[in-house]
């Protein structure tokens, strides 16, 4: 998602650092240990680099990216086990501790998991790290046997010398390997040599997830731990007006009331029930402050106004406006995409044990270094005094890229010396999200007499997430995410004008939401392309095909989806098919959705056909799972979801008012993959971005009704 | 003090009458397999069995429980249908983040216990109370069919 900000060279530099510099620096302490120290403490683990640890307990792979359900632990382990000549049943995986010097994502410039970047960032460095470890162990075995390393064979972690029937396990040779030089030129396997990459290997994290033994952040228990729940000002900037502390303290099981500033209060209890009851007894009232009159309408009115003036120019090729002015057919439209909540099923939570001289934090976070800093800042402790135990996450979808919940917990608990698990209620979670921004898009296009697109303009108006989240990436007023997919489309087009107007909403925090920039821009572009086809009486598929002469991979996924979906075959009355095509997150994806719109305007999703080219595939079942899940996530939002405000407070408080798609509402989903050995593309968010456009276009095909504002079920009035 | 029989084991629990079983399990007994997702009977993450019935632990208060045995995800494998469902879940790689899956599995076991060969529509009916934010529904359906024919 920061792809505009650095060159491919920067990426290569990053990987060189991760495999060369780190290897070496980690190598030295082990090599320098004395025999006496070794004897005293037993064999030390072989830690050739930041990602591999081998000791008598076996092989542990350190995961630079966090597991939110997307399957990255499995894919990362597969990449490493491939080069280590191990199978997945022979490795353990472990979350990386916060350490920017070792685990920074070279494309995100942070130790962060997001932007469907993990596999793209780790494809080289994890295989290199694993290969380096293998090479060092093989060299150590060769040295012990006094043979040429190239004569040795490795299989399932056993090094063999075929000439002399000798063998050593990794665990046996690991202590020797620590003294081997770190290899400089690491030759990685060619795809034709892969035995694990590309297979449907079983996930490494799921056995414990079907028997209740898995621990998420919310399941942490520590000796003496108490449980707290909090209330935040319902309106941003609001302050506590009154509370009944006596009534709260009189509630059975309530232990303490803690406050931070004027806008956050938590009750600590023996258990969540006591804390919740106590919080209710507190009967908080609030002064709403400056945002007390904000509604969704007031926010949108300001966006509409702001969008009337030109913003920062993103792309300006060949005077698009002049081309449109001269065009035979002119189109213009406004598209609107709502605020959305992440609402992962595991509500926000973290467990803190703050002491005078240090702190421990148990949390599922996509940004462990930021999490550590949040606790350090709130408590005054040095960051290295804050131990972060990163946990599996019950979903994130971008929500856990922010550390507001950790910061608030640390501020609330800074004077409490026993461990406390801070659990947000669903209501607090949903009403205090960092929401997917509302976007207001003005688009225009011109077609010549033959129906060819001759010029297009697109003004994106909305919040800049980068400006808050990574200010260094917000340069010259350009938010590269807000316009991702607006300036560059898969199509042949020369005359394009795109600009960006930053407009921050009153009273709302905004952040990354699965699918990020493309989720909104692909909806707008693909809906508008459909409008162009309709305005020039062309078939939406043919119209797109004609504009893909320079983009063979996009054309290939489009053709595949069209063939599988039976494009052109007659549909029953009330049925419609819609297309969405994109290049996003490094992957090509075409989606054709078939729906039925009933007489009552009820939308039924029938069949979702996805064709994807994500380059080389680590685990095809993970790609399939992400396509299925990502599509449902996107369709759920496109059908039902928007966050609204009344008097500055969010109206949607739980899943009764923020509807999530259920099993009886999902379409049949078919996924077709184009296999090749191109660099891997991201898959976690791609399908989400392909949902809304196809749905809007299918509704148009079924009803003739062009809907330009999400969610679609609302807009149809069903 | 009340005796709860959970997964075949008796526990003496001191808890207020209006306290939901969800928090008794999680915070008093330390059985964290049963999850909190909404607290208002919308998501199904807290599904357990009370007797033979799938119930929402967030809505089942202490005073609603008599002597019925309680089964949670931690005890699901003790029953042959439960073991089949868990195996099918792994076989079909249903799980993503996994947070909803305790509840999904407990709902699926209750379904298969009363209806050994459910149709798609019957699966939809029985499982519509369980939200999966990761969108694993397609595989949940496949896994229930697989467990039914295992
Ligand atoms: S927590 Fe009980 S149904 Fe959601
Ligand atoms: S697997 Fe994540 S909520 Fe269902």
UniProtKB/TrEMBL annotation, chain A:
* Alphabetized SMART domains for the sequence: Ald_Xan_dh_C
Where in the numbering of this chain does the Aldehyde oxidase/xanthine dehydrogenase a/b hammerhead domain appear? 211-290
- What protein is this chain from? Molybdopterin-dependent oxidoreductase
Give the organism the record lists: Rhizobium oryzicola
Instruction: Recall the taxonomic lineage recorded for the source organism.
Output: Bacteria, Pseudomonadati, Pseudomonadota, Alphaproteobacteria, Hyphomicrobiales
UniProtKB/TrEMBL annotation, chain B:
Please report the stretch or stretches of sequence annotated as the 2Fe-2S ferredoxin-type domain. 1-76
Q: Which controlled-vocabulary keywords does the entry list?
A: 2Fe-2S, Iron, Iron-sulfur, Metal-binding, Oxidoreductase
Key word Cell membrane present: no
Which domain of life does this protein belong to? Bacteria
Q: Does the keyword Repeat apply?
A: no
What Gene3D superfamilies does its record include? 3.10.20.30, [2Fe-2S]-binding domain (1.10.150.120)
Q: Name one Pfam family in it.
A: Fer2
* CDD domains given in the database record: fer2
Entries under InterPro entries matching the protein = 2Fe-2S-bd, 2Fe-2S-bd_dom_sf, 2Fe-2S_ferredoxin-like_sf, 2Fe-2S_ferredoxin-type, 2Fe2S_fd_BS, Beta-grasp_dom_sf, Diverse_Oxidoreductases
Its name, as the record gives it, is: (2Fe-2S)-binding protein
The organism encoding this protein is Rhizobium oryzicola
